[in-house]
Design a protein that fits this description.
It contains 8 helices and 7 strands; from the N terminus they run βαβαβαβαβααβααβ. The longest helix has 29 residues. It is of the alpha/beta class and about 250 residues long. Strands 3-2-1-4-5-6-7 form a 7-stranded parallel beta sheet, sandwiched between helices. The structure holds nicotinamide-adenine-dinucleotide. Nicotinamide-adenine-dinucleotide (NAD) binds next to α1 and α4.
């Protein structure tokens, strides 16, 4: 196979949570590489703003609602064609102000985070995988977190949900063996400078920053560069893996 320099011409990529932060950077990066992008976000304003900027398709909805998923995936397929790349990026850190130890957590803290970070992600996979299997091609990139490898204190639901993302990435990659050139990977960022940090206390952010050997937050564009490789046809012998992007915090 000739190297295609990670070009994505002719590919359709859906990015969940594409309206801001890491998701927006991924949308812009994959669009610059030639892909047509479905910008999926529950913020209609942000989904449209990003889609307008890159000639993409806005997909406005809540990924925990199956009716919304049917509608928005139908819209992107109609406008751009079948989905080749799915970047499962949408996620939440906690209910506002609920970064508490596990013994102080309540059922709603767990249900809120797992519903979006795990169940919603699985539902998005289910929306595109039958088509990828039919066409025997696909790339899925799941945005996990360093918290899913290490378990951050006072972030129990988040850490456990991201560990689930890492594990289901491995299960899915094995289930897809023999079904074509379909690779599924996850990545584990440390602190990246985005609005998600508004959901956490400064004390919590300082704790996470203190663990990063490179001594700074990561940038959304740095994450987008890694997602770009994992979304390309040149990522063909890496599947089921969780790639670290943590400024040296996790070297495993
Ligand atoms: N920023 C970090 O430090 C960091 C570190 C590790 C992992 N991550 C992960 O990276 C991903 C993106 O994080 P970010 O910092 O860009 O977050 P962000 O809060 O800036 O953006 C998340 C986007 O997802 C959208 N979204 C949330 N719930 C949704 C739903 N139910 N349906 C549709 N859209 C929904 C939001 O509207 C928002 O646009 C998340 O999965 C997060 O857990 C972030």
């Amino acid at each position: 196979m000739a190297a295609d320099m990670f070009r994505l011409d002719g590919r359709v990529a859906v990015v969940t949570g594409g309206g801001q932060g890491i998701g927006e950077a991924v949308c812009r990066r994959l669009a610059a590489a030639g892909a047509r992008i479905g910008v999926f976000d529950m913020s209609a304003e942000n989904a449209r703003r990003v889609a307008d900027a890159i000639g993409g398709v806005p997909m406005v909805g809540d990924l925990t609602k199956e009716a919304d998923l049917d509608r928005v995936f139908g819209e992107v397929v109609k406008a751009a064609g079948p989905v080749d790349v799915l970047v499962n990026n949408a996620g939440v850190a906690s209910r506002k102000g609920r970064d508490v130890p596990i013994w102080e957590s309540v059922r709603e803290d767990w249900e809120y985070v797992f519903n979006i970070n795990v169940t919603g992600l699985v539902l998005c996979c289910k929306a595109v995988l039958p088509g990828m299997i039919d066409r025997r091609y696909g790339r899925v990139v799941n945005i996990a977190s360093i918290a899913g490898k290490e378990g951050n204190p006072k972030m129990g639901p988040y850490s456990a949900s991201k560990a689930a993302v890492i594990a289901l990435t491995k299960s899915l990659s094995k289930e897809l063996v023999g079904k074509g050139d379909i690779c599924v990977n996850s990545i584990s960022p440390a602190v990246i400078q985005t609005p998600i940090l508004d959901q956490l206390s400064q004390e919590q952010i300082n704790m996470m920053l203190s663990k990063i050997p490179l001594g700074r937050t990561g940038k959304p564009d740095e994450v987008a560069a890694l997602v770009h490789f994992l979304s390309s046809s040149e990522c063909s012998f890496t599947t089921g893996f969780c790639v670290d992007i943590s400024g040296g915090r996790a070297t495993y």
